[in-house]
Amino acid sequence: MKFLNPFLLSISLFSVDLPTASAQNPAPGLTVSEPKGFREVAQLRPRSTKEIKSSTWSIGGETLDRDYTDYQSYRHYLGPLGAKRIRLQGGWSKCEKVKGKYDFAWLDAVIPDAYSRGVSPWVELSYGNPIYPGGGEPKLGGRIPTSEEALVAWDNWVRAMVNRYKNQVTEWEIWNEPDLNKLNTGEEVAVFYIRTAKLVKAIQPNAKLIALGVAGVPATAFMRPFLDHLKQENALELVDILTYHGYAPNPDTSYPKIEEMRKMVWSYNPKITFMQGENGAPSTASAVTIGALRQYDWTELSQAKWDLRRMLADHGRGIATNLFTISDIHYAAGDHMTGVNTKGLLKTNPDKTIERPKMAYKAAQHVFSTFDDQLELLDQAKPSVSQATVSAFQYRQRKNSGSLVTLWSAEARPAETYEPKPTTVTVEGKFSKPVLVDLITGKVYEIPKNQWKKAGDRYTFTAIPVPDYPVLIADQATLSLVK
Fold first, then answer.
1. 3-state helix, strand, coil in the chain (%, to 5)
2. pLDDT at 33 over 90
3. Which of 43, 139, 448, 469 is the most buried (most CB within 10 A)?
């Protein structure tokens, strides 16, 4: 595929133009041509984290434990983004560089600060520490601690972490992608998980325990021995939430395997909830980025489309989401990979400081601001659409009962140019003033009166242009707007 300049892209009815943004500009400028026959009436108003009471959204803040990102550079973007939680990695080897001596200064500059901005940290307990024989490796895909000396030292560090941050951290994830290392068997990781989980619960009984960020989905060969051992030890109740990753070029193709995993896990314990713990798309050409999905060329536009589709396909299925990630990640030699992973919502300079927000940052703001706890998913009330390849989910605003529908074309990986599908949408709900919303730009358009009709509680919208990323048909009263 020929790599296209992201600043020269258009989407048929939705034409996107991105002038260059300076480091001082909080976001790239966006100009969008109005869909034919649709009149712009407002703009979505992003709400800060403190304006949002609660939601299921999380943003990735990974790799601070290895200094691959710079929290002090991106922290000012957290509040305006609107995600209520942030995933952090605890970094045993960064905390304990000399046996028995802890340096928590780097985490003290992160966890309380994020918390003060209304963003609740959930902290992953990882990775290994090579100052101990058998201490494991401090990198992605590393070995877990195995020697008795290292495990005792691990226990001591976990106790110190939980005691220090228990007033600001209520969720602890135990390890990350253990299945990447074939020496980490499911049963061995289960023993390690139980050991760690009991330490956390002894100090913080009400803490939520998160297992275990598996890289593969459904990861059956790893998960079954893990769950079998937990069952054998009567320890299934030690898993509150199960996180999984698993990247797909077309995010909409992910869900059969996710459902397979959920059914397997629920056969052991139906109380376990699921969270998509790490997913996002790169924003650059294949030759530039590293990490998952690097085999394809991407731009900031296709990144924004992919992220929106993954977020709202998760949300429409009742799955909490951690969007990967806030800032581009600069991996160093000696880790699982070397180079820049361009999945960040924020574009970085070579020194890891922030150059500017990308398109995906603004798109994520629109989702985080709109899909909070004030919006109720109606999973039993599916909209009817005339196009088989269009995904649709329906919501209701709790206070005023106004309706909202998400729509996108899901048949392929997000493209740089795409002809929107004129789609008829039928839905039972409440639309006092129906509008069409573009979630990339935040522009809100009045739906022409000749393109919708009402019969009782049933509304039919015709010739709605549905692109290959989510747009909304919404009762305007359900939205936070700048008019």
1. 30, 25, 45
2. no
3. 469
